[in-house]
Design goal:
Blueprint lengths: L7 E5 L3 H13 L3 E5 L2 H10 L4 E5 L7 H11 L4 E6 L4 H9 L4 E4 L4 H24 L12
Parallel strand pairs: 1-2, 1-3, 3-4, 4-5
Helix pairs in contact: 2-3
């Protein structure tokens, strides 16, 4: 069983201080973390490696957070995405949820707040994994069994 495998988290924010603040806090809790400051690099890495959780800013040069979220969900629907932004509006929150975001946090936030969201996402991921592993494999039924 894979249940205790550390979850992998990708953090994308064009403000390096945000990534550098979150990475050690998450690693201390046992998560594997990769950080990116440019959305194009983060997307290339995401396409090559599996991540359980993605944390992305909204306002960035190049591919913005909504586009990045859409790319992530299109290629890996089971990846949970958390949006963090200093430009939170009701419209951006609604759009994020329409595109499948797990949660939406306004900057500034406390480390404890985002850790709580990560923990909720982890529970969902672990439950989904356990359900998938406990499903019986479908096999063809045979009337000849005796």
């Amino acid at each position: 069983m894979d249940e205790q495998r550390p979850l992998r988290i990708l953090i994308l924010d064009d403000e390096p201080i945000v990534c550098k603040r979150l990475q050690p806090a998450f690693e201390k809790k046992g998560y594997e973390v990769e950080i990116f400051f440019q959305s194009e690099e983060a997307l290339q890495r995401f396409k090559k490696a599996r991540f359980d959780i993605v944390i992305t800013d909204l306002k960035m040069k190049g591919l913005d957070g909504i586009q990045f979220l859409s790319e992530v969900k299109a290629s890996s629907p089971e990846t949970e995405v958390i949006v963090i932004t200093g430009f939170a509006t009701m419209e951006t929150a609604k759009e994020s949820f329409r595109r499948g975001v797990f949660d939406f946090l306004s900057k500034p936030f406390k480390i404890g707040e985002i850790l709580d969201v990560i923990k909720k996402a982890e529970v969902k991921i672990r439950q989904r994994t356990a359900e998938t592993e406990s499903r019986p494999l479908e096999t063809g039924s045979s009337k000849e069994e005796r």
